Amino acid sequence: MAVALILLLVAIGSVLFHLYSPWWWTPIATNWAYIDHTISITFWITGFVFVAVIAFMAYCVFRFHHKEGRRADYNPENKRLEWWLSVGTGVGVAAMLAPGLVVWHQFVTVPADATEVEVMGQQWQWSFRLPGKDGKLGTSDVRNIASDNPMGLNRDDSHAQDDVVIENGDLHLQVGKPVKVLLRSVDVLHDFYVPEFRAKMDMVPGMVTYFWITPIRTGTFDVLCAELCGAAHYQMRAKVIVDEEREYHAWLEQQKTFAELSPARAVVKTTYQSGGK
Amino acid sequence: MVDIPYEGIRSIPPAEVPDVELYHPRSWWTRYVFSQDAKVIAIQYSLTASAIGLVALVLSWLMRLQLGFPGTFSFIDANQYLQFITMHGMIMVIYLLTALFLGGFGNYLIPLMVGARDMVFPYVNMLSYWVYLLAVLVLASTFFVPGGPTGAGWTLYPPQAILSGTPGQDWGIILMMSSLILFIIGFTMGGLNYVVTVLQARTRGMTLMRLPLTVWGIFTATVMALLAFPALFVASVMLLLDRLLGTSFFMPSLVEMGTLSKYGGGSPLLFQHLFWFFGHPEVYIVALPAFGIVSDLISTHARKNIFGYRMMVWAIVAIGALSFVVWAHHMYVSGMFPQFGYFFATTTLIIAIPTAIKVYNWVLTLWRGDIHLTVPMLFALGFIITFVNGGLTGLFLGNVVVDVPLSDTMFVVAHFHMVMGVAPIMVVLGAIYHWYPKVTGRMLNDALGKFHFWVTFLGAYLIFFPMHYLGLLGVPRRYFELGDTTFIPSSAHSLNAFISVVALTVGFSQMVFLFNLAWSLFKGEASGGNPWRATTLEWQTPETPPGHGNWGKELPVVYRWAYDYSVPGAAEDFIPQNQPPRATQLIQGAAS
Q: For the Cytochrome oxidase subunit II copper A binding domain, which residue ranges apply (chain A) (predicted)?
């Protein structure tokens, strides 16, 4: 019976494709293997249901397709069967939801020892900011943005002066150190997306969003924008480099602080303003 | 074995059939153009939706050309690519599927299936179509205005939708919003009609629990649409005000192309909440009519009652209600308050239970049936496979933490195309093969239909099943080109090219279907009034195609539910809903 066979082959082919195709998730680079495990559980449960439903359907087509003299049963309801199927489905759903919610709890609970890093998105580039010696990021506002202050930092905030500002550069992170990635945008929605990190979050103008990760291996990873942000969305790229402690500090030493990057002009501007009045 | 509840006959009200005032056409114009006959309006809706749907189909070819063979086609640039995806998505979801299921199938089938002469407000029904047509024309006009259509993505998220970094910022976005507002006005006129007709104009004996599931699906979807579309309506008006008058509903202080804009104080997330409060029910506005129709296709062509009818009705109602409390599962990575994730993941996964019940009942209807592998039945089987596949991948995306790596990747694109693209379109196609004989009096060609089914079903599966794995790999969606990355292997580009070739093949194979529709109109085999030997009322009309007023002199009287197939003891394997118990021919020797 050709139709039944083709239907069955669709199910079998899907399973074989899943097992043997070369396309699979990237090797993970953070602590979020829990997410991968949850996906695996979901694959097992949904895969079982998929094959079972299609195989049952194919069997019905094979066994009960029209022949001269065949007559269907008359069987409007079967309370017991419907009840058991509902309960079984509920159990399957719970088996996926429970680990999902547990991992979500971890995902939204930032560990106390996480250091902060800021990523800022704008059409169509990334900027990064690390806290300086004081360990705190200064405040910022879109209205402060000027050519000498592209991240809109607050000059009156002493915490901002020693912040390390990285424009048109790559972000370095230290392996094994939990980091809270603070995300903001100055124009439209963006999304800081590194496939190997598993975590991602939209960046929304007017608010600060976040996720946290602990990098577990060194390497260089692509940063892409995952939320449509206009014409050059596909070209909005950067790199994140996860270093060992020594390389990380060597890199950090070379970076410029906000005060180093734009002190002179800031002074000039202030003088001019006060002189004009 | 369950007894058929014939005692329902006693509940039939006295045989008064009030005179229904119908506007009878007096000229060619009022018969075929400004018609108030729901059946003509249905065909107008269907043809308009199909025409704009063909535009969306061509847009999908252009997108696939770019994705499969980046850099090859110089006539597609990054801006146009964004315009193509935006218009493709918006047309398919709203102007094709919503209009076709509710305006097309709803108009044709509701009055016939409930035993009414027409919709209760025929004039408003006519207006509904003309406003819809205007909305389609406004939408189509954006291809010809300066700057072209909007390229903000079909979700139209501000701030970018109305800022200058996005194509179509001048006219495109303004006309898109205007068109949506018109569509919702037109839909509301039709939608109120469908709801009131189902509630008030059912013929004698047609209790709610005797309605065919097609009517239940369309009815529930219409109620949902009447509740959900207002959210899109206000979002469209507010975004239009932000764009035209400089209000800041959705616009915080921001920098536009290097300078501080005049906006300040608004919230981009507010738009997303409004959009998805409409957008998620919208998925079920498309799915529920498909659920209902496919139930009737399976039952009729398997010659067996739908399994668990009452459970099917309650599942439709439960899905409709639940779909209003799951919207933020589209926003898990939007930056909204993270604790919302628990609630929305739970509601979203709970909705899987009534949905699964529907799937079980479809396949259990096949069990010990007498399955006729007609073209409508093949499409119904194709629907079950693609819907189960797409529904199950929804469990990935609905489970908040699993969504984090998968959102905004091709996994999402594959999921929603499978579940609300391919699956409902399988039903649309199956339904057209099923009801074409009633609409035209002729059968569609069977051999062409089977060819059309296999190419469409297998092709669509080959397009969207492997696409999930591109998303799992991390390939982002809405990308004009993938460019250089370390994580996308060249084999993924080959897969993209393969998908494009299959997509073009499936697209062109639809021409076979269009040819079949046109050719069979004149040359198709005469069908008679009830070629599928079906029980529901639309097959029992005195004329085929049914005349204006549907039923001749007397409205039908309904004595039974819609699924009396293969009733034990009855001579025929179907008993029409309007056949009195005493008129049922029994097999010799069977007890009545």
A: 112-254
